[in-house]
Amino acid sequence: MPLVDERGVGLILFGLVCTVLVAGAVVIGVHFLMPKKLVERYWKQPHFGPFQLAVFTGTIWAPLRTVMLLAAIAFPAIARKRGMTEMREVVPAWCRWVAKLLGTIWVITSAGLVLATATLLAHFQASGRIALWPGQDGARVDWDLAIAIAVLLAGAGFLLVRHVISRGARGGRHDSAVTHQSRPGSPPKPSADSRSKVPPGDGERAK
């Protein structure tokens, strides 16, 4: 009896792909219903780069603009990174609900596709139906599939390293700002209460 039910895993993959297609259709519908004020306020620099603004505005890739805005609504970390912390407060309730729903679907389907694909590849490798690396039996390596998987892993690793470096750079800038404020020679920042108080001598002279 095989350890992996190929039919079951195949049905899971088919269901995940259908879910992605349905979510894509929803995104296209939301693209035409996205509030105009929201787009005008946040779809510009410095929240997004010039390349993104040029490619995802007025082209066939325009629905990806909606994906990026919905991601910022669904995940507060993305909104903070792009300087859009007040975004969730200005969007309508239905937009927040759709963003949370699509964000949840994106996380579940992404994890499911990765796990199901890895399970099938490991099963096919163990059963000898594919060869991702040279084995003892001298089977011919499927270089096209092996290279495609290596490229995907390299891309995922690049994105992970870039995310870690960007977080470290932001943390370094924050620490340097805190160190400068706490330096003995740096003048203290006046508080609102101290600015509002008038010295007694100045008040007497004004009288």
TrEMBL record:
The chain crosses the membrane at residues 12-33, 53-78, 99-125, 145-165. Residues 192-207 have a biased composition (Basic and acidic residues). This is DUF4328 domain-containing protein. The keyword Membrane applies. The keyword Membrane applies. It comes from the Bacteria. Keywords: Membrane, Transmembrane, Transmembrane helix. It comes from Caldimonas mangrovi. Residues 172-207 are annotated as: Disordered.
